[in-house]
Amino acid sequence: MLKWDARLIELNGPSVACKIQRLPTHENQKSRIMIGSGQERINAVKLNVGAFEYAKTLIKQGHIVADGRGAWSEHHPSAVAENEFIRLHGFGEYAKWHLGIDDRYAENTKRRYKFPYGDFKNVHRCGVVAAQSRAGQHKYYEVENAAAQLKAMIAMTMEAHAQRWIHRFRLPLISMSRPSRKHQ
């Protein structure tokens, strides 16, 4: 356990004024960030445990799209699709598709829910990777770790499916190395 003196750092940029006050005298004490006009943020984004459990269930059931890393920009639901989903299913179901919750916003707003990971049908690997990356950038470690666990589950599930296909159809394992040539 480290003890620090109270420190106040003021950062003034062309468009943002920010004050950071760090008082980590106890392990459970949180850093406080003052944004703009004094609005306080104390670890505003937290892991949405219900969404994490829901994602694990979907992965176990095989509702996975194992797409590439950069595909999320094309695969994530549009604003129109999100609004239609909320209209049909409500914010409770909408929340299940987001790994983060921002406590600063009301429950019935889209702004409250962060780090989407799927298209309201399947868990997308690219969405999980994007959530992990963005959460790490913003230091939301609970969300980042949850996304890493989901990514590992997807990899294990895909490996298990591949093994079943190999055994089911007795497919030969193909070596990726080049065969050696014999000189005659």
Structure description:
The chain is of the alpha+beta class. It folds into two domains: 7-41, no CATH class; 45-168, no CATH class. The chain contains six helices and nine strands, in the order βββββαβαααβββαα. Helix 1 (49-60) runs parallel beside helix 6 and helix 5 (125-137) runs antiparallel to helix 6. The radius of gyration is 22 Å and the shape is globular. It starts with 6 loop residues before the first strand and ends in a 16-residue tail after the last helix.
Task: Detail the poorly predicted runs.
Answer: 1-40
Number of helices: 6
Radius of gyration: 22 Å
Strand composition percent: 15-25%
The total count of strands amounts to: 9
Structural class designation? alpha+beta
Number of domains: 2
Distance between the termini: 72 Å
Shape descriptor = globular
Secondary-structure topology with pairs:
Elements: E1 7-12, E2 17-22, E3 32-35, E4 39-41, E5 45-47, H1 49-60, E6 64-65, H2 72-75, H3 79-89, H4 91-95, E7 98-102, E8 113-116, E9 123-124, H5 125-137, H6 141-168
Parallel strand pairs: 6-9
Antiparallel strand pairs: 1-2, 2-3, 3-4, 5-7, 7-8
Helix pairs in contact: 1-6, 5-6
